[in-house]
Design goal:
The structure holds two protein chains of two kinds. By secondary structure, chain A is of the alpha/beta class. Chain A has two domains: 188 residues, D-Maltodextrin-Binding Protein, domain 2 (3-Layer(aba) Sandwich), CATH 3.40.190; 149 residues, Periplasmic binding protein-like II (D-Maltodextrin-Binding Protein, domain 2). Chain A contains 14 helices and ten strands. In chain A, strands 1, 2, 3, 4, 5, 6, 7, 8, 9 and 10 form a ten-stranded mixed β-sheet that branches. Chain B has a single domain, classed as MetI-like fold (Orthogonal Bundle), CATH 1.10.3720.10. Chain B is 71% helix and 3% strand. Chain B is built from twelve helices and four strands. In chain B, the strands form two sheets. Chain B has a two-stranded antiparallel sheet with strand order 1-2. Chain B has a two-stranded antiparallel ribbon with strand order 3-4. The radius of gyration of chain B is 24 Å and the shape is globular. Classes of the chains: A alpha/beta, B mainly alpha. At the A-B interface, helix 3, helix 8, strand 6 and helix 14 of A face helix 3 and helix 11 of B.
Chain lengths: 349, 291
């Protein structure tokens, strides 16, 4: 490559060094915090506020599934100080020794957490984690097209003829199957052969009504009218309604699936003190409200509503009815995963 | 150039191939004979379970049953890859020939057009087809506004849309190698054929086709191998309703947490590709002898 002369190269090296030096100096002063979170799931305002208050330099890296996170931490690293783990995966991470104890319950702002979220099934004493945000999984319908009942999962899993080829489902087996099990009123992580056969038959019969199995681009599909019914997360349904006012998020009488993402500190993290600062920061209402605003999902801190805009705070998608039966699906045993895999492969064979 | 120097110069290529290709392949091969760990990864003991799973599956009650599910998925993937390669050839060969027949400056411009899609990310280009083909997309809206159709045509989420996406992505890989072989062709050979009263078809069959063959073989390999393992077009344009082997492998490393089976499938794909290469190189040699 003749066009890069030696002089030019040395100049480039000089520029690179000059840009590196100030960051290094800054990092030595204030410390850093490396966050590993789902894609599009970290409020920039939240990070800016944290940096301003503490002087800590934050770096955010992203992933697309709990499995990716698991694989990365298992292979020994990434150098992260904060990771965001879904409720069903927290016990796995604890059991595998991938996250460390931080005793969140002794932190000053722990009392701000809604009492029902201070004790969570997956981390009873808040030894390892505190809540990030949470939401529900159900489905949304376009009421301009679909005129049937919108209070039951039957409309989704045993649809009427008008919905042929107009339904969208998630692309992940566990999320499709956990909601189907709620509809069938069967236990989660099922390994009972009779239940599994019934589940299999239900999904096979639903298939002709399904246009697409994909977890990405749901807001787009519902917003444009490409699908008239779609399995969806509550926050996504909210944004779909903002795009198309006739979209309605359904709270079924059979119940819905709930999930929560939690922040945790990986074993071997370098900046544990800064991570703890971030834990405490996240449990203050004015801060966590920024994250809810950004993502459209509920948080677990009392009094954060005051810091939210009405169009979010008063949205039905953001406020599940008090009598809604919410099932927090646990992570399943290898045997159940195998059975789900069999159903899922057959379905798309 | 001395022998030593030659060895030294090819060393980077050898190192690159062994580190980034042979070692990962070896890892996949080893993993395919291990037992999958419940939460991803593999553990001892070594078994053939992953390969047995290709034909036999555990039913819900734990009994082993013969199942052709995976074979169907593999067969469908091969069919689709072959169809993609053939369609790319049918489109790519005339385009390459047309470019060769132009004057130098026009050639440059046309080649520039062929390579232009590479400037844009494949994911974005594939997603654009969703916007064009969907019910509210460009084609259906245009036809509806012209009053030609009432209900939208089902253009998206079927085998046809997957094939379209694959052909669209891969056709430049056929045009470029064929062009580079035809470019060096001595045009007097064609003139000579015409002088000897060969018809248009005969000129094509007896002169152009044999001369273009190395490029056709190269292009076919460049397309068949990645088309077999692709999962972007099938996922986006197929709506995820029919599994292809690329998506199946990806699934084993994520939601199914069955790394051993994923590795076994990857080994199978690689073996298929290598086998195809061997067969095609053999057939080529036979062809050379005949010429």
């Amino acid at each position: 490559m003749s066009w890069i002369s030696k002089r030019m190269l040395s100049k480039l090296a000089g520029v690179a060094l000059a840009t590196l030096l100030p960051t290094a100096a800054f990092a030595a002063d204030a410390g850093e915090l490396n966050i590993y979170n789902w894609t599009d799931y970290t409020s920039p305002d939240l990070i800016a506020k944290f940096e301003k208050e503490t002087g800590v330099k934050v770096k955010v890296d992203t992933y697309d599934s709990n499995e990716t996170l698991l694989a990365k931490l298992k292979s020994g690293g990434g150098g992260y100080d904060i990771v965001v783990v879904s409720s069903d995966f927290v016990p796995i991470f604890v059991k595998e020794g991938l996250v460390q104890e931080v005793d969140a319950s002794t932190m000053p702002s722990f009392k701000n957490l809604d009492p029902k979220w201070q004790k969570r099934e997956w981390d009873v004493d808040a030894k390892y984690t505190v809540p990030w945000v949470w939401g529900t999984t159900s489905y949304s319908v376009d009421t301009a097209v679909y005129k049937g009942p919108t209070d039951t999962l039957k409309s989704l899993f045993e649809p009427d003829a008008s919905m042929k080829g107009k339904i969208g489902m998630f692309g992940s087996p566990t999320e499709v199957i956990s909601l189907a099990l709620v509809y069938l009123n069967k236990p989660q992580c099922n390994t009972n052969p009779a239940d599994l056969k019934q589940l299999n038959a239900l999904l096979e019969a639903q298939k002709p009504f399904v246009k697409v199995y994909n977890s990405d681009g749901i807001i787009e599909r519902m917003g444009s009218g490409e699908t008239s019914m779609h399995e969806q997360w509550s926050g996504g349904a909210l944004r779909a309604r903002w795009a198309r006012s006739t979209v309605k998020y359904v709270y079924p009488k059979e119940g819905a699936i709930g999930w929560m993402d939690n922040i945790a500190v990986p074993t071997g993290a370098k900046n544990v003190e800064n991570a703890k600062k971030f834990f405490d920061f996240m449990m203050r209402p004015e801060n966590v409200a920024l994250q809810s605003t950004f993502s459209g999902y509920q948080n677990a801190v009392t009094g954060s509503e005051k810091f939210l805009e009405d169009k979010l705070a008063k949205a039905p998608e953001f406020n599940p009815p008090a009598d809604l039966k919410i099932t927090f699906a646990p992570s399943c045993s290898p045997k159940a995963i195998k059975a789900y895999d069999l159903i899922w492969t057959k379905l798309r064979q | 150039m001395s022998m030593k120097r030659t060895l030294f110069l090819i060393l980077p290529a050898v190192l690159f191939i062994s580190i980034f290709m042979l070692i990962p392949l070896m890892i996949a091969l080893v993993y395919s004979f291990m037992t999958s760990d419940s939460y991803g990864g593999v553990t001892a003991p070594a078994t053939f379970d992953a390969y047995i799973q290709l034909l036999y599956q555990q039913d819900f009650d734990g009994s082993l049953i013969f199942s052709t599910d995976y074979l169907f998925i593999i067969l469908r993937s091969i069919e689709l890859a072959v169809a993609t390669t053939l369609l790319c050839l049918i489109i790519g060969l005339p385009v390459a020939w047309h470019i060769v027949c132009q004057n130098a400056s026009r050639r440059k411009f046309l080649l520039f057009l062929v390579t232009m899609p590479f400037w844009i990310n494949t994911l974005i280009r594939t997603y654009c087809w969703v916007l064009i083909l969907r019910d509210q997309g460009l084609i259906n809206m245009t036809l509806r506004n012209l009053g030609l159709i009432m209900d939208p045509l089902p253009l998206l989420y079927n085998d046809g849309s997957i094939l379209l996406g694959l052909v669209y992505t891969f056709v430049p890989f056929m045009v470029l190698p064929i062009y580079s072989t035809l470019e060096r062709v001595d045009t007097r050979l064609i003139e000579a054929a015409h002088d000897l009263y060969a018809g248009r078809w005969q000129v094509f069959r007896r002169v152009i086709w044999p001369l273009a063959k190395p490029g056709i073989v190269a292009g076919s390999i460049l397309i068949f191998a990645p088309a077999l393992g692709s999962f972007l077009a099938p996922d986006l344009l197929g709506g995820g309703k029919k599994l292809l082997i690329g998506s199946l492998i990806q699934m084993q490393f994520t939601s199914s947490r069955n790394w051993a089976f994923g590795s076994a499938l990857a080994v199978l794909v690689t073996a298929t590709v290598i086998l195809t290469l061997i067969i095609s190189s053999r057939r080529n040699k036979v062809g050379e002898v005949r010429i």
